[in-house]
Amino acid sequence: MEVNKEITLKNIPTKASEHYRNFPMVPRVVYGKGSFEQLGDILMPKRKHSEAPMIFLVDDVFEGTELLRRIPTIFSDQIILISAEEEPKTIQVDALVKMIKDQFVEMPSGVIGIGGGTLLDLAKAVAIMLTNKGDASSYQGWDLVHKKAIYHVGIPTISGTGAEVSRTTVLLGPEKKLGINSDYTTFDQVVLDPELTKGVPKEQWFYTGMDCYIHCIESLTGTYLNAFSQSYGEKSLDLCKEVFLGNITADDSREKLMMASWHGGMSIAYSQVGVAHAMSYGLGYVLGVKHGIGNCLVFKYLKDFYPEGVRLFEEMVQKHQIELPSGICENLTDAEMDTMISVALGMEPLWENALGKNWKSKISSEKLRSIYKKI
Ligand code: NAD
Ligand code: ZN
Asked: Are 102 and 206 in a shared domain?
């Protein structure tokens, strides 16, 4: 099975003689409390005609809420509610695309994802697969997409992953978990309305928020760091400290975490993540542990790598009285443990970023085993 290199393409050359990545950015963004109200106006010029609908993919946690009523549907637009309980899958993307194609004669005018990283990734993938032939799984990898996606918009309702700015959509395929990394993946428009994150439960707020915090620590302490990444990473880290350790109002906190996520995503886009993400990926691969919580479970035990980062993390856990689950790896078989370790060690650029070019001499399977056993 192929190891997920979700983020590995985000590494960038460190020497001037190497080729620098030409990174696509979100060309349009609206920010502000209540900015969701502008969605109708934003979409209007993108509507091709009345038979070409806007397709809204919405986290089903919003079923029956005011938000659904505020979605500016007209003509034959469709709202599709989707659960974020499980990570997005290629077959789910294929099924959505088939459903849309069966139902509408015309190609939709756009796809709008409303939710967390799960819904944002689904919206990106559906937008790509509406114009590209075959199955979503055949595009998992790097730069395999050759046709422009249809117009797609990302509207986060929880902050932290940076999926709103990234050029990947991470999908679980039949044989591998891997992103569709391409210049066409990035959203055409993002709407950042901090009010949309109001209902997020505390634990989930913390786990997804810590994804952002860990992006900053791993980017800022990494060997791939450069002024581009540092400028975004430092700002994001300052915002995370205010949100998770400061005494600010709930309103302020929502606004700041939303911008921390954005900056954190921009920071790793041009550098790389590190040990926590590599090991969290092993947890996700073998045990299905989700990205945010997986990062937290691992990070706690990474004092040797990120002493100051872990110290602050512990302060944050205490301040918010977060009870991290334990005993996760207790009943792993030796074979499962070995898979977990090899999956984590397979994320080579992450290790190189964290520990330098000769990272292989600085980390061992035994070290990883001893950390996993504590989790
Ligand atoms: P999520 O989308 O999985 O949602 C987590 C939970 O929060 C769900 O139960 C969801 O229903 C709930 N939720 C979301 N908004 C809410 C709201 N306003 N009120 C109440 N509940 C709400 O969470 P996530 O952590 O944002 O995303 C994780 C996913 O993102 C993973 O699948 C991961 O692979 C992916 N990811 C992608 C990238 C990328 O660059 N594409 C980066 C990091 C992670
Ligand atoms: Zn992450």
From this structure: no
Q: How far is the CA of 99 from the centre of ligand 2 (A)?
A: 31
- Residue 322 pLDDT level (bands cut at 50, 70, 90): very high
**356: its two tokens:** 């330098």
**Ligand 1 centre distance from Cα of residue 208 (Å):** 7
**Residue 329 half-sphere exposure, CB side, CA atoms within 13 Å?**
26
User: Ligand 1 atom closest to Cα of 161?
Assistant: 43
Establish whether residue 158 lines the binding site of ligand 1, counting it when its CB lies within 6 angstroms of any ligand atom. Answer: yes
112 close to ligand 1 (CB < 6 Angstrom)? no
Q: State the sign of the Cα–Cα–Cα–Cα dihedral 67, 72, 78, 84.
A: negative
User: What pLDDT digit, counting tens, does each position of 39-81 carry?
Assistant: 999 999 999 999 999 999 999 999 999 999 999 999 999 999 9
Residue 167 falls inside a structural domain: yes
The domain of 223 spans 202-374
In a domain, residue 6? The reply is no
Please tell me the distance between residue 215's alpha carbon and the centre of ligand 2 in angstroms. Answer: 6
239 and 370 assigned to the same domain? yes
Measured between alpha carbons, how far is residue 116 from residues 24, 119, 281, 342, 352 in Å? 21, 6, 19, 29, 29
> 155 with 218, same domain?
no
Model pTM? Answer: 0.94
| Ligand 1 pocket residue status of 115, Cβ below 6 Å | yes
